[in-house]
Amino acid sequence: MIYAGTMVQQGYSVAYTADAKVYHSHNYSGKQQFHRNFDLGVSQAEHPEIFEGVPSEGEGIRLVKKSLNDGYLVGSRGSVGSSFVATMSEITEVNPLAPHYVCPKCHYVKFYTDGSVADGFDLPDIICPNCGETIRGDGHDIPFETFLGFEGDKVPDIDLNFSGDYQPNAHAYTKEVFGDDHVYRAGTIGTVATQTAFGYVKGYEEEMGIEGSMRNAQVLHLAKGCEGVKRTTGQHPGGIIVIPLDLDVHDFTPVQYPANNPYAEWKTTHFEFHDIHDNVLKFDILGHVDPTAMKMLERMSGIDPTTIPMNDPETMSVFSKVDALKIDTSKSCEETGAAGLPEFGTPFVRGILELTRPTTFDELLKISGLSHGTDVWLGNAKDLIDNGTCTLKSVIGCRDDIMVYLLHKGLRPKLAFTIMESVRKGKGLKDEWIPEMKANGVEDWYIDSCLKIKYMFPKAHATAYVMMAIRIAWFKVHRPQVYYCMFFSIRCDAYDIETMIKGEQAIRRRMQEISDMLKNNETKKDVSKKDKDTFNTLELALEMNLRGYYFTNIDIMRSASREFIVDPENANYIIPPFTSIDGLGENVADTVVEARKQGAFLSKEDLQRRTAL
Prior knowledge:
There is one protein chain. By secondary structure, the protein is α+β, with helices and mostly antiparallel strands. Helices cover 43% and strands 10% of the residues. It contains 25 helices and 15 strands. It has helices at 2-9, 30-46, 58-69, 84-88, 145-148, 167-178, 194-208, 216-226, 273-276, 289-301, 313-317, 347-356, 361-372, 377-386, 399-409, 413-424, 433-439, 444-452, 459-478, 480-490, 497-502, 504-519, 529-546, 586-596, 604-610; strands at 75-77, 100-102, 109-111, 126-127, 134-135, 137-138, 159-163, 183-191, 230-242, 255-256, 268-269, 281-288, 550-551, 565-566, 573-575. The strands form 5 sheets. Strands 1-7-12-9-8 form a 5-stranded mixed sheet. Strands 3-2-6 form a 3-stranded antiparallel sheet, with no helix packed on it. Strands 13-15-14 form a 3-stranded mixed sheet. Strand 2 and strand 3 form a beta hairpin. Helix 10 (289-301) packs antiparallel against helix 20 (480-490) and helix 22 (504-519) packs antiparallel against helix 23. The longest helix is centred in the C-terminal third of the chain and has 20 residues, at 459-478. The protein is globular, with a radius of gyration of 28 Å. The termini are far apart.
């Protein structure tokens, strides 16, 4: 690639020669894979004249390590988990190598590269044959090509999920690393939407006193002329643009304050980030609730989430049944324990769980891919499972599954990669590929499934999300009080705290009221978003009650301002915070906690005098 780039710069062209022989292997050992990933990065660094504009990963490592050192886990997004170097650099927890064992003590290694093991987390713990240490499996068999391209010619994109609480710190740290004059928020441009454009035309008619005089075709013509026109500017929620230290930002884009606010802390790029993100380094430093949840669970339990096993049988069982929750099934109609778990708690995904009954990490990855893809589950994999054509283990879940499967079938690596890229972008299969797929034993149903897919989720992204979900599920099974405190503190959008405190029967009645309104066509429109969010909260409150855990009343001397906490006098009870009271904000709640440090409240008047209530 370096030679080709040099020749192109000297005026030569690169020709495609169909009959040229290329000797290429994808059957790498762990050490070889590391060197392959690492050498590509070294090549980019040593030849800036060839790889100009290709981002460096060094600053990404620093950002992640700072967050980890400050006590917050970082989740990876996209395909960065496909890079073993990113794994070794601690940018991501996802290990893309084939399923394997590695002894942490003597470094004994055993790989499964024949496809007999789909995911390393599904391997049972073993005793090292050399030193007797307990070894856990790892490795998710994710092709490196999905991150940097088949020939290392793709601009890498590193997206990271920081805790929402820590995100401002991560953003500010980029200024420390690069300097204020070289770091800017990625700008966005808000344009006139279709409905707004029609509103403009109608407003013009009213102002000019010509209502109803224009034909529909003329109204449509004028609205189309307004559609897409710049309306306002803003900033990407996590995008940070970094300008090279030897260049000026104006070499790439003008800058401005977002929404013309001169008091804003950050300046933004005037050009929309989509127009320049391939020319400059862009970090996606996003805020996400999962790292925040991990921090809270660790703080309340004292358990490091990174030590939680990914193959705990009781934890895995909640994705297919409720036994591990020890719920009286005569009082519950739930078939799984997935309610309240990230990625798996929505009615849609719980429906997939009930149909497929997953028992392995690999199957959970498939479900994550199926639920995020387009035309992957409905009308595709679901029908194949329903009619018995295949099982969850064999359907296409994530984009990387296609390349790995085709490689195991014997297809040429380049063709396997090209097919994966075409299918995951919704472009289907070329006619000339299908005979070669069939000649290598690819089933007809698999080919038909590829033809239906419009978008596919990256396996590395799914792996990072499922790991977080399993950690939270572990707390739900083994530390339920801590789990419910976390859930009701940071994952709920609405409360009916009075009903929650009253217990099971009151919760059931309120849930039934909302459910009946949703089923009635006349009252359906009266159900607000808050009612729907409250229903979801009550669903977990009911589950908690059925497991033998309850809410106390809000206690003026014991409730926290913002978090649900375990009652120190009775571990089966949880004390709600002041903010669970409808309309009571965080700042007001903080004044109550601060004031009671000075002594008990003597009366309602004393409470009002000493707080902001």
